[in-house]
Specification:
The protein is an alpha+beta fold. It folds into 4 domains: 72 residues, His-Me finger endonuclease fold (3-Layer(aba) Sandwich); 134 residues, Conserved hypothetical protein from pyrococcus furiosus pfu- 392566-001, ParB domain; 63 residues, no CATH class; 209 residues, no CATH class. The chain has 19 helices and 14 strands. It has a 6-stranded mixed β-sheet. It has a 4-stranded antiparallel β-sheet with strand order 5-4-3-10, with no helix packed on it. The longest helix is centred in the middle third of the chain and has 22 residues.
Length: 534
């Protein structure tokens, strides 16, 4: 809503108001908190209401703030105080993006001064006594301890300073999603959420951090708004496998929360590690003794064969996704199909992981040839990462522009907008139905090498066989040749072959014949693998 006060303000008085606000805000933008230069940015500054008029804010200088025009017009909330909080979160996201990850509760706790103390306590059967001595509060507090009738876990309720809270990324690896903005506004408008965060402690040693594993979004929203203490339901010595399984089921079979596939794979990996430890304990093995196979795990956990197999494959997928050397992950939207990155995690699963991860359990020991660097699962993981890096270097790095993204590119082309050839090429080659087809040629290059050397076709276990350098060279040559085909930068095709989502067979036909199934010429000639790698 426009300001009547500002519209009636003479030019000289407006400049004095700008100077006054600039001084009061210590020369910084109210939203992004970065400096404002009144000379260099004089035409890019807004005066806006901190509390919007439509919700009762006053139209006078006491309710005005100075902001960069770009910050003010792209703000995520109408209330400038909320917009500033969300801007801080956006800045944290940008910082952590350099580490190929998004913020979680632990990052927000760290930013707010949390995660700094463990709680000292004494525990009886029906009571827990503690104090916050590390913060100068030596008063002893005693709380009743209850027993959950269904799980048998003991627990207590407490309001705890954030200095004693920590995020359990093992049980809950979820990052903070974009819906945090709605929660922040709900809490800001004094509408409390009823869900209490869940945490756990170990009683051994009588000192423990409070590990938060559920309700992290609501906890995060309160912390972002400046809460210094949170009410928590704290379990005492719970079985971690039960908590991980519960969290996994909440996001999969029960659909209680929207778990991204990548998060599900991380949880599956956690459950795999738990099963490894339980097997080692049951068979009296040491922690570093992995002289048993994936098949042995399935045979041991009778009645859970499907689950154990899924956990094993989840561990491989998660190993590739979370590999610090994986350059392609920077170009993958981990939470569905967004508009910033060219690839979705779903595409990665349906192509890379479906094609190149061996889908059956191995009979060889988990530690087989590990010291020699020839372990099948480790070769598989490292070579998938190497392939992803080759693709990232050829198609995306210094070519795809995240600031341009993928939003409605074909529609914009039809309206006459232009994009760099590198960006357009990367965007189109990232369509799932197209990746599905060209990635199989990469597989064919490796398989042909083994066959030409007189060795058996590795088939589904291809990536568990180490590729020599000529294979990688041929893969790079093929991908370079493919990317240089005119089809990817032909803007006239935005209304036809690129006008909507096609199926896998549509592009299979184009690659094999040069034409669409309807007979439209797209390539000058069919894809010839030998020609492409010359």
């Amino acid at each position: 809503m426009a300001s009547l006060f500002l519209s009636r303000l003479p030019s000289e008085a407006r400049q004095k108001l700008i100077q006054s606000l600039h001084s009061a805000q210590k020369s910084n933008c109210f939203i992004c908190e970065q400096p404002i230069d009144l000379v260099a940015q004089k035409d890019a500054i807004d005066i806006d209401h901190v509390v919007p008029l439509k919700v009762g804010g006053k139209d006078d200088p006491a309710n005005f703030a100075l902001a960069h025009a770009s910050c003010n017009r792209s703000k995520q909330a109408s209330n400038l105080e909320v917009a500033r909080i969300l801007s801080r979160f956006s800045q944290l996201k940008d910082k952590l993006a350099l580490e190929n990850r998004s913020p979680n509760l632990g990052d927000l706790l760290m930013q707010a001064g949390g995660k700094s103390h463990t709680l000292g306590f004494s525990l009886a059967d029906d009571a827990l006594t503690y104090s916050f001595s590390e913060m100068g509060d030596n008063k002893l507090k005693t709380l009743p301890v209850y027993v959950d009738e269904l799980s048998g876990f003991r627990y207590f309720f407490a309001k705890l300073p954030i200095q004693y809270l920590a995020h359990d990324s093992h049980i809950n690896p979820r990052s903070i999603g974009s819906n945090i903005s709605k929660l922040v506004e709900e809490f800001f408008n004094k509408r409390p959420q009823l869900h209490v965060p869940l945490g756990w402690i170990k009683s051994e040693g009588s000192r423990s951090a409070i590990h938060i594993f559920d309700g992290q979004h609501k906890a995060a929203a309160q912390i972002m708004l400046g809460a210094k203490a949170l009410p928590v339901r704290v379990f005492i010595d719970p079985d971690p496998d039960t908590l991980i399984t519960t969290n996994t089921n909440a996001g999969t079979t029960l659909k209680q929360v929207a778990f991204d596939k990548s998060v599900q794979r991380h949880l599956g990996n956690s459950l795999y590690q738990e099963r490894l430890q339980r097997y080692q304990t049951a068979t009296s093995r040491k922690e570093d003794d992995l002289a048993f196979s994936e098949r042995d795990l399935i045979n041991h956990f009778k009645g859970q064969s499907k689950e154990i197999k899924r956990y094993i494959l989840d561990a491989v997928r998660n190993g590739v996704t979370s590999d610090a050397e994986n350059k392609l992950i920077s170009f993958v939207d981990m939470s569905g199909r967004g508009t910033d990155h060219p690839l979705s995690y779903s595409t990665i699963e349906k192509t890379f992981y479906s094609f190149f991860i061996y889908q059956e359990v191995l009979e060889t020991p988990i530690s087989y040839l590990m010291e020699e660097g020839e372990n099948p699962r480790e070769i598989e993981r490292s070579q998938i990462v190497q392939l992803m890096n080759l693709i990232a270097e050829t198609l995306y790095i210094d070519k795809f522009d995240d600031s341009v993204g993928t939003d409605k590119i074909e529609a914009k082309l039809r309206k006459g907008e232009t994009f760099s050839h590198d960006h357009l090429r990367a965007y189109r080659l990232s369509k799932e139905e197209i990746v599905y087809n060209w990635l199989q040629y990469m597989s064919q290059i490796a398989r042909q090498y083994f066959i030409m050397q007189g060795m058996p076709d590795p088939k589904e276990r291809l990536f568990q066989c180490r590729f020599p350098e000529p294979v990688w060279d041929n893969m790079r040559k093929f991908l370079t040749s493919l990317s240089e085909l005119p089809v990817w930068v032909n803007t006239d095709l935005s209304d036809s072959v690129f006008g909507g989502k096609q199926n896998n067979n549509f592009w299979k036909t184009i690659f094999e014949t040069g034409k669409t199934p309807q007979g439209m010429q797209v390539l000058s000639k069919p894809i010839n693998l030998i020609d492409m790698i010359k």
